[in-house]
Amino acid sequence: MLSFENVGLSYGTGPETLRDLNFAIEPNSFQFLTGPSGAGKTSLLKLFLLALKPTRGKIILFGRDSATLSKDEITQIRRRIGVVFQDFRLLDHLTLYENVALPLRVLGQEEATYRSEVFELLRWVGLFERKYSFPTVLSGGEKQRAAIARALIARPEVLLADEPTGNVDPTLARRLLRLFVELHKSGTSVVIATHDLNLMDQFDSARRFVLADGRLHVFE
Ligand SMILES: Nc1ncnc2c1ncn2[C@@H]1O[C@H](COP(=O)(O)OP(=O)(O)OP(=O)(O)O)[C@@H](O)[C@H]1O
């Protein structure tokens, strides 16, 4: 459903940060993306979202060559991908409920059609009691879970999460992993960028994408 063919990425005139990337994210698959700090995990996730253009090679998203997409088509494609950013990107002037509901509001849906779904998702990530709090009063782990709920509300076909357990204790990290595995079992493809070896060991049937020296190595 998403694939990279001989993709390279350089920032400015520097050497390639990522090179010769050849891999695919299959429907209903689960993979960890790992590698040393600075190896390019975030850059790779940005390529997926078309927030960065590859310097060479081809990125195919849901059967479409990303280089041929119009602005509107890029927006449509992004809606099929849920993202959890490292810095959460919640809007501080909106409550958690409003933050999570935002992708559906943007799509023009009426509140009555999504209210119970937003509540259910907030319950799922353990934030129901805090639904009317503002992000500024939340802990890092709570913000992270809110960002996960927001990424999932529009039922994306693929979830990309950048260090989604980076701000939580090991118990909560296990719970979040179970949530991602459940999501995967219900048909979503999941890509988790992480440094957390312990987390990866807890789901050892997942594929591992390891970035090293700008290249991606896939371990089945
Ligand atoms: N906007 C930018 N301009 C120039 N260089 C950049 C830019 N963004 C990232 N880089 C460089 O690209 C390399 C990969 O960065 P990236 O953030 O993708 O790594 P990462 O694997 O996500 O790191 P971490 O695990 O520490 O978050 C680094 O050397 C970084 O300095």
Quick structural gist:
This protein is of the alpha/beta class. Helices cover 34% and strands 26% of the residues. The strands form 2 sheets. A 6-stranded mixed sheet has the order 6-7-8-3-9-10, sandwiched between helices.
Structure description:
It is built from seven helices and ten strands. With 220 residues, the chain is an alpha/beta fold. The chain has a domain of 68 residues. The strands form two sheets. It has a six-stranded mixed sheet, with helices on both faces. Helix 3 crosses helix 4 and helix 3 runs parallel beside helix 5. The chain is globular and about 45 Å long. The two termini are 18 Å apart. The model has no long low-confidence stretch (mean pLDDT 92). Bound molecules: adenosine-5'-triphosphate (ATP).
